[in-house]
Amino acid sequence: MTRVSVTVDGTTYEDEVEPRLLLVHYLRERLGLTGTPVGCDTSNCGACTVDCDGATVKSCSMLAVQADGGTVTTIQGLAAPDGTPHPLQQAFHEHHALQCGYCTPGMIMAARDLLSENPAPSRDEVRQALEGNLCRCTGYQNIVDAVIAAADASRADEPAVPAEEATVA
Ligand code: FES
Ligand code: FES
User: Does ligand 2 lie within 6 Å of residue 101's CB atom?
Assistant: First the structure.
């Protein structure tokens, strides 16, 4: 067994784990964070995507011990403390971007990563960013709609930049 200390969705956990334990199984079975699903056994579907230290990773392709000392954010850590959904969660709901919902956590985590780097993506850029995430239900159209809508909503929420700060020296 190996000792790990991992901060997940704002809470730090100290645990003894088998060195071979996958991060997704640590999240689901040890921590009870079942919002991150396992959708395949080939590391292909992306359903298990989480953020680890600022990078999206498929948590079925990473060991829990590799997250030692790190910070993991799952779909369950996105809502505001008062329960207000993340703009992507809200947009997926409003645009009917899910049916069975199995792919949704991974889709949202991958889209969140995209919007952190590119707040105004084109539809093609959204499709490219989500190409590692498979959905067998929706045909993807509504997912792209939702990501674009969330990007628009997030930009609309940004405070206007005062004119003097917006001026390039
Ligand atoms: Fe991780 Fe499918 S469960 S990629
Ligand atoms: Fe069912 Fe995407 S909504 S797999």
Answer: yes
